[in-house]
């Protein structure tokens, strides 16, 4: 074995250098790119014309931690509803910036509904869906003109399901003339990247500031996304929005998003992410926000909520007590965060361990800020609690879950409450 000679490096590569775009609503500012943290955003799936329903879902997404929320603006009713949605959010004390998602008729809606154009904090334009032929350039220019008039940043979002066919034909012709033509897959990649960059340059020529442009090239395949964004990031310095365009349902969508974005984020690529999960019928839209946060937090890129470490269970843990306690504690911590992040600065850095038996329980509990090692099958019915590496007490009886939750709350108040007092003084 070779001697231990050098430090073993850990952590992601340095963030790619990019410009910084500022998304603003009132006093709220969200920075994308530059040295800003990677931003988590989401999108509603309500009918935008339903003002109350949309506002409630936006509130839920923002409370879950979505720092930007995108809404569909697809017709006159939706455009007319946007100012009312913004007003309803203001009444509820929700200051999350709103992004308007425009396709096909965006130039008309932004022109005919100036209050909508003003109420939004950012526009998303898909250059493949702004018109065909000569109309395309004119209608794209009209949308950029509105962004300039109202001083709004724009995401130029290319999607391989709606790629500009004229541009694709041009690149296919160029490829056919090569002595060694590229594969069809490579041509598609090239078309996506070219569309994004050329439209960004066109927007700048029309007067939109370079600090008001964000790019995305969305595909639905993991390896495709990695390949496209590696090349896109090398060819421009605009901030980049990451996301699979249709990640899928349930575990498939979560795994695909994590696999693709984990690689890119580890390489320092990506300034804002959206996890495009297809919710199960009646499913919670906020799940995509939680998954996005957990990707960033487990990679060590950001801190959002205290992390709960829990063992997977085995034949030593035939009781479900530790599983139920881990779920209860995780839900409790996340539910408290909208209040805690204001009252207890730094609480998002806390680690809580809920372990199921004596094998790894005490050790993992000692490594956490606060941990509990529950008894496994056949073990003594006692649950030692460790606080900052030291055994503090042992819980017994039928109220272990309630008592441990109270201990966690007491720890938060004592450990992070003083930090809040210091910060306010």
Describe this structure in words.
45% of the residues lie in helices and 18% in strands. With 425 residues, it is of the alpha/beta class. The strands form four sheets. Strands 8-7-6-5-4-3-11-9 form an eight-stranded parallel β-sheet. The chain has a five-stranded mixed β-sheet with strand order 13-14-15-16-17, sandwiched between helices. A two-stranded antiparallel ribbon has the order 1-2. Helix 11 (321-343) links the parallel strand 13 (307-310) and strand 14. Helix 1 (51-64) crosses helix 2. The longest helix is centred in the last third of the chain and has 25 residues, at 400-424. 41% of the residues are buried. The mean pLDDT is 94.
Shape: globular
Order of helices and strands: EEEHEHEHHEHEHHEHEEHEEHEHEHEEEH
- DSSP, total strands: 17
- In terms of DSSP E residues, the strand content is 15-25%
**The biggest beta sheet, please?**
8 strands, parallel
How many helices? The count is: 13
Which stretches are poorly predicted, pLDDT < 50 over at least 5 residues?
A: none
Strand order of the largest sheet: 8-7-6-5-4-3-11-9
Instruction: Estimate the helix proportion, in percent.
Output: 40-55%
Q: Would you tell me the overall average pLDDT? A: 94
Binding site for [4Fe-4S] cluster: 311, 314, 357, 364
GO molecular function: 4 iron, 4 sulfur cluster binding; 4-hydroxy-3-methylbut-2-en-1-yl diphosphate synthase activity (ferredoxin); 4-hydroxy-3-methylbut-2-enyl-diphosphate synthase activity (flavodoxin); iron ion binding
Domain IspG C-terminal: 308-408
EC number: 1.17.7.3
């Amino acid at each position: 074995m070779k001697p231990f000679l050098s430090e073993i490096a850990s952590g992601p590569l340095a963030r790619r250098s990019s410009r910084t775009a500022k998304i603003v609503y009132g006093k709220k500012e969200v920075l994308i790119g530059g040295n800003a943290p990677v931003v988590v955003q989401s999108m509603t799936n309500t009918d935008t014309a339903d003002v109350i329903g949309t506002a409630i879902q936006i509130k839920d997404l923002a409370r879950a931690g979505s720092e930007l929320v995108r809404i569909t603006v697809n017709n006159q009713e939706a455009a007319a509803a946007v100012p009312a949605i913004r007003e309803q959010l203001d009444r509820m004390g929700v200051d999350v910036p709103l992004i308007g998602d425009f396709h096909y008729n965006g130039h008309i809606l932004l022109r005919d509904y100036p209050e909508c154009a003003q109420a939004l904090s950012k526009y998303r334009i898909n250059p493949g869906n702004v018109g065909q032929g000569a109309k395309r350039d004119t209608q794209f220019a009209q949308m950029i003109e509105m962004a300039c008039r109202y001083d709004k940043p724009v995401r130029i979002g290319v999607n391989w399901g709606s790629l500009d066919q004229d541009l694709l034909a041009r690149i296919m012709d160029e490829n056919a003339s090569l002595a060694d033509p590229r594969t069809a897959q490579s041509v598609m990649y090239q078309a996506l990247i070219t569309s994004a960059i050329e439209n960004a340059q066109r927007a700048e020529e029309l007067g939109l500031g370079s600090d008001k442009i964000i790019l995305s090239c969305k595909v639905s395949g993991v390896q495709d996304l990695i390949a496209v964004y590696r090349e896109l990031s090398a060819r421009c310095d605009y901030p980049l929005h990451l996301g699979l365009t249709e990640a899928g349902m349930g575990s498939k969508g979560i795994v695909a998003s994590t696999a693709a974005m984990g690689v890119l984020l580890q390489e320092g690529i990506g300034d804002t992410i959206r996890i495009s999960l297809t919710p199960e019928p009646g499913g919670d839209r906020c799940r995509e926000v939680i998954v996005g946060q957990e990707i960033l937090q487990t990679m060590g890129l950001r801190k959002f909520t205290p992390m709960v470490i829990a063992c997977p269970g085995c034949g030593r843990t035939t009781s479900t007590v530790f599983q139920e306690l881990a779920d209860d504690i995780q839900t409790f911590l996340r539910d408290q965060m909208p209040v805690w992040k204001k009252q207890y600065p730094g609480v998002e850095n806390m680690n809580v361990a809920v372990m199921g038996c004596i094998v790894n329980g005490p050790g993992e509990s000692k490594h956490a800020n606060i941990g509990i090692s529950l008894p496994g099958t056949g073990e003594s019915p006692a649950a030692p609690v460790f606080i900052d590496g030291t055994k503090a007490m042992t819980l017994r009886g039928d109220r272990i879950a309630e008592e441990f939750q109270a201990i966690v709350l007491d720890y938060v108040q004592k450990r992070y409450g003083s930090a809040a007092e210091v910060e306010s003084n």
